[in-house]
UniProtKB/TrEMBL annotation, chain A:
Species of the source: Crossiella cryophila
Keyword rRNA processing (UniProt): no
Family of this protein: Belongs to the ABC-2 integral membrane protein family.
Protein name: Transport permease protein
InterPro entries xrefs: ABC2_TM, ABC2_TM_bact-type, ABC_2_transport, Nod_factor_ABC_transporter
Keyword Cell membrane: yes
Upper classification of the organism: Bacteria, Bacillati, Actinomycetota, Actinomycetes, Pseudonocardiales
Topology in the lipid bilayer: Multi-pass membrane protein
Ranges of residues in domain ABC transmembrane type-2: 45-276
Transmembrane segments: 45-65, 133-155, 161-185, 248-270
UniProt subcellular location: Cell membrane; Membrane
Main location: membrane
Record keywords: Antibiotic resistance, Cell membrane, Membrane, Transmembrane, Transmembrane helix, Transport
TrEMBL record, chain B:
Gene Ontology MF term list: ABC-type transporter activity
GO cellular component entries: ATP-binding cassette (ABC) transporter complex
Major localisation: membrane
Domain of life: Bacteria
An example Gene Ontology biological process: response to antibiotic
Lineage, broadest ranks: Bacteria, Bacillati, Actinomycetota, Actinomycetes, Pseudonocardiales
Family matches, as Pfam families: ABC2_membrane
Family: Belongs to the ABC-2 integral membrane protein family.
InterPro entries: ABC2_TM, ABC2_TM_bact-type, ABC_2_transport, Nod_factor_ABC_transporter
Statement: the UniProt record of this protein carries the keyword Coiled coil: no
Transmembrane residue ranges: 80-106, 118-136, 196-221, 233-251, 282-304
Residues annotated as signal peptide: none
This protein's name: Transport permease protein
Length: 279, 314
């Protein structure tokens, strides 16, 4: 499929056309490659916010405030540092996912217009969405792995099971990234809406979805809010994997919810990208 | 907390985008005048209030910093929700950590070593942090956008205003914003019964002091920034301060040498100031904290003025 028209023309002495049709997966990878090319030169700019920030939280809260936590207050009898570490892995995944799906996406539509450039090639809007989401997932895996390596130095990593937690964290991040990407594809203001997402969605989610303390410490009426956040489901999975105590059916429920968010978000994103880029 | 706004346009996001149109109209004029004005412009100490001096290019200070404050009011009129919602962040922290987390901690050692309720310990520290964050955000990202992209100050300096007016005007606006947030937060603390002393009335003026110092220092740093990437350095200073300056736990957690370092960080002093006022542990030592902030503010304003002068008028 990929070869014959091009090669025939080349053999007949025609110049090679610039746009060469490739398979859908390969096309999405080309989008990822574009992102990677940028990232290879500019990763330093994201290093602090994606790895440094959760580590600082781990040190300040895990060690500092951990020394003040009443004995027995943490469920399961582990130290507060061990309790916090897997949850911060998920928080940083969701935060990186938000960072990767908001301004970079809006900018690719509006300021730098990267998507329009790609769209002028044979790569379709659906493949652009695929590439965008694949790239986000790769970023989350990479940053999470680096965070784990450094956290291990401070005694925050309890067992190799944390590698499974890394997968759950990435899934939770993607379950937030996909619907968010779909939404950002419809945004056209200068980014005030996006600022509000950080302020009204990401921030409260971080603070109220069971990261720093068990959910039952909050008033009853707040708890259902946490249930709809991907962060809480991801935290339950990641923490349960490392500290033990993860039951089969609840785990399946968390997984199903996250996968549904991811699939629904991706479908919606594909539709919105197509709408925006097609005309 | 931040996001990775890595792409060039990204920081545009805040409330300053609204003024792009306003600012752009001034650009051409500012740039054209600069060539002519360059030689005469920067005469230190020149106060242009006579009619003759009005005609001449601006000196350092025309006593009209308030015009920039008025402009900020006009610009933010349409995005007031964005402005007001800034108070929600410390509030979320207070509700989440003060209540949820507090139940795991119970009591911690307060300013005099006596155990105190965790929420009561945390709240004044969050107030100090929000004064810092508000001032820094206003005096760094927004100022950088106006300086580099909107070319607002080129336009401003083409009028009778000088670099000191710009510094004073912008910092004043940041302080007004800081005052707004700290008053709102103080009311919430009052409602949640987290204030133990009438000295708390002094919290708002103290917060203004703190905001002034951070805004001045932040703006001075901004004049050295080359790109948005450089702002990571500011985050690198702000976030560790927020986390480690006895905001969430008492200083006694640290070994002695580390305590000594933390004691010299500005946020620690701001936290001490606020915590002392809301709990009623007021001493002469607080004047030392105030003096500390006066020095930072003075140096900040001076550096900002000199840098703007150098960047825009020479």
């Amino acid at each position: 499929m990929t070869s014959h028209p091009t090669e025939d023309r080349a053999e007949r002495g025609h110049p090679r056309p610039t746009g060469r049709p490739v398979g859908a997966l390969r096309a999405a990878f080309l989008v990822v490659e574009g992102k990677w090319t940028w990232y290879r030169r500019n990763w330093r700019a994201t290093f602090f916010s994606s790895v440094g920030q959760p580590l600082l939280f781990l040190l300040a809260l895990g060690l500092g405030i951990g020394s003040q936590v009443k004995p027995g207050a943490v469920p399961g009898g582990v130290s507060y540092l061990e309790y916090l570490a897997p949850a911060l892995l998920v928080v940083s995944a969701v935060q990186n996912a938000t960072g990767e799906s908001t301004f970079p996406v809006l900018s690719s539509f509006k300021w730098q217009r990267v998507y329009w450039g790609i769209n002028a090639s044979p790569i379709t809007p659906h493949q652009i969405v695929g590439g965008q989401l694949l790239w986000t997932a790769a970023r989350l895996l990479l940053s999470g792995a680096v965070y784990l390596v450094v956290a291990a130095f401070f005694g925050g990593v309890r067992s190799p099971l944390v590698l499974i937690s890394l997968l759950f964290a990435t899934l939770a991040g993607m379950a937030f990234a996909a619907p968010l990407t779909a939404y950002v594809a419809t945004v056209d203001d200068e980014g005030q809406t996006l600022g509000n997402i950080f302020r009204f969605v990401l921030m409260p989610m971080t603070l109220f979805a069971g990261t720093f303390f068990p959910l039952d410490r909050l008033p009853d009426f707040v708890q259902p809010i946490a249930w709809i956040t991907p962060l809480w489901h991801g935290t339950e999975l990641a923490r349960g994997t490392v500290l033990g105590g993860l039951q089969f059916w609840p785990a399946l429920g968390h997984l199903a919810y996250l996968l549904a968010l991811l699939a629904g978000g991706a479908a919606l994103a594909a539709r919105n990208f197509r709408r925006r880029l097609a005309n | 907390m931040t996001n990775d706004d890595r792409l060039t346009g990204d920081r545009v996001a805040d409330n300053d985008v609204a003024d792009r149109g306003v600012a752009d109209r001034g650009v051409a004029k500012g740039a054209a005048d600069r060539g002519v004005a360059g030689g005469l412009a920067a005469r230190p100490g020149l106060r242009s209030n006579g009619p003759l001096l009005r005609v001449l290019p601006a000196g350092l200070y025309a006593g009209r910093g308030r015009m920039l404050v008025e402009r900020a009011f006009l610009v933010n009129r349409r995005s007031w929700l964005n402005l007001v919602s800034g108070i929600l962040e410390p509030l979320f922290f207070l509700l989440s950590l003060g209540i949820g987390f507090g139940s795991m901690v119970g009591q911690v050692a307060g300013p005099d070593g006596q155990p105190m309720d965790y929420a009561m310990f945390l709240a004044p520290a969050l107030l100090a942090s929000s004064a810092m964050n508000g001032a820094i955000n206003d005096a760094t990202y927004n100022v950088f956008f106006k300086l580099k992209y909107a070319k607002l100050y080129d336009a401003v300096l083409a009028t009778s205003l000088g670099p000191l007016d710009v510094a004073v005007g912008e910092i004043t606006w940041a302080v007004i914003r800081g005052g707004l947030y700290s008053s709102g937060f103080l009311l919430v603390m009052l409602g949640m019964d987290l204030i133990a002393s009438p000295w708390a009335l002094l919290v708002v003026p103290a917060a203004l002091f703190v905001a002034f110092a951070f805004a001045a220092a932040g703006m001075a740093c901004t004049t050295f920034m080359r790109s948005w990437q450089d702002f990571d350095l500011i985050q690198l200073a702000i976030l560790p301060m927020f986390l480690f300056c006895s905001t969430f736990y008492p200083l006694s957690v640290y070994p002695r040498p580390l305590q000594w370092i933390v004691e010299w960080l500005p946020l620690y002093r701001a936290v001490e100031l606020m915590r002392g006022l809301t709990t009623g542990h007021v001493g002469v030592g607080m004047l030392g904290h105030l003096a500390y902030f006066v020095v930072i503010a003075g140096v900040g304003v001076w550096v900002t003025t000199r840098r703007l002068d150098k960047l825009l008028l020479r």
